[in-house]
Design goal:
The chain is an alpha/beta fold. The protein is built from ten helices and 13 strands. Helix 1 crosses helix 2.
Length: about 325
């Protein structure tokens, strides 16, 4: 088959959530500037899970990957490529994906990291689909994982937004008309400071001064994030639906990034999609960045809520700005 006759389907899902739980009330005790009730009513978050001190993004990724491989019924040696989407890699180098590859024993696999912040998992799915369609790869492991607790300033009022976790899928080829039907993605770097980590890169390497000033923690303009997300998520979903020749009424499930409950409710209102079709878990996990879509997919799949032939809409936005969506027919 040529690439017009080939698509990519998901054959296995997995996720991992760290054991430690930090509730809104716990944070309120640590940081009196936060308010537990406000956090739940405006963000939809009750608690989040926090990685242990000796638990890296790679550790979370490996646990999620093992679940996905088991779900797919394949061995790590059957993988041709591993993509890890993350903003919090295990180390600046080598890539988290290479470490995961070694720990899994995926000796036949290439591996690389991908950075699009909260859009990383969607970007990974899109990139992986291309390798499947060209025939370059047969089985690809895609992971979204982050440990934002390690780059959060818990003395700031906005420390309540994020949690830690990992989600993973294995994709392989299927006939066109099943699996991935369409996708859309984009970026706009004009507002790089609306969500950023000011120091720790080559522009401003980590020093005692940057550490003392808290510049190695993320900083965010919450209103800018809300405005961007409620604009870009509907836009990208509309584009993907149009490319697939579908309408909002054809969607059975929306599996979105989990930025806040108000952003998702506004998205549903703008698009005219019943909010009951949106799957959320931010009440338990908060925003796990690159992991959000993979985790909600794994939970929805393992709960038996997705049936063969269902149309699934994936969507995410992230710092950069980045955004992406993907329409899939489950098979």
């Amino acid at each position: 088959m040529d690439n017009k006759q080939i698509s990519a389907k998901i054959i296995g899902t997995g996720s991992y959530i760290p054991k430690k739980v930090l509730t809104n009330e716990d944070i309120e005790k640590i940081n009196p500037e936060t308010n537990a009730n406000w956090t739940f009513s405006n963000l939809g978050i009750k608690e989040r899970h926090i990685a242990a001190e000796d638990e890296s993004t790679a550790d979370l990724s490996i646990s999620a990957a093992k679940e996905a491989l088991k779900s797919a019924g394949i061995n790590a040696k059957d993988l041709d490529l591993i993509i890890v989407g993350t903003t919090t890699p295990r180390r600046p180098a080598p890539s988290t994906a290479c470490y995961v590859q070694n720990q899994l024993g995926a000796v036949n696999s290439a591996a690389f990291d991908l950075a699009a912040v909260c859009s990383s998992f969607i970007y990974g799915l899109i990139v992986g689909t291309q390798f499947i369609q060209t025939g370059a790869c047969k089985n690809i492991l895609i992971i979204g994982a982050d440990t934002f607790s390690k780059i959060t300033n818990w003395e700031r009022r906005d420390c309540v937004f994020f949690g830690d976790g990992a989600g993973a899928v294995v994709i392989t080829a299927c006939p066109a008309g099943d699996g991935v039907l369409s996708f859309d993605f984009g970026a706009d770097g004009s507002e790089e400071f609306a969500w950023t980590i000011p120091a720790g890169g080559s522009e401003r390497p980590q020093t005692h001064e940057t550490l003392d000033q808290g510049l190695n923690f993320w900083k965010m303009d919450g209103q800018a994030v809300y405005d961007m997300a409620t604009k870009r998520i509907p836009q990208t979903l509309e584009k993907s639906l149009n490319k697939a020749g579908l309408s909002v009424s054809d969607i059975d499930h929306v599996l979105p990034h989990q930025p806040s409950i108000n952003i998702l409710k506004k998205t549903a209102e703008i698009m005219g999609i019943p909010f009951s079709k949106f799957h959320t878990n931010m009440d338990r996990y908060a925003n796990t960045s690159a992991a959000t879509v993979g985790i909600i997919l794994d939970e929805t799949n393992k709960a038996g809520l997705i049936k063969k032939g269902d149309i699934i809409a994936f969507a995410a936005v992230g710092a950069g700005w980045t955004w992406g969506s993907l329409i899939m027919k489950w098979c």
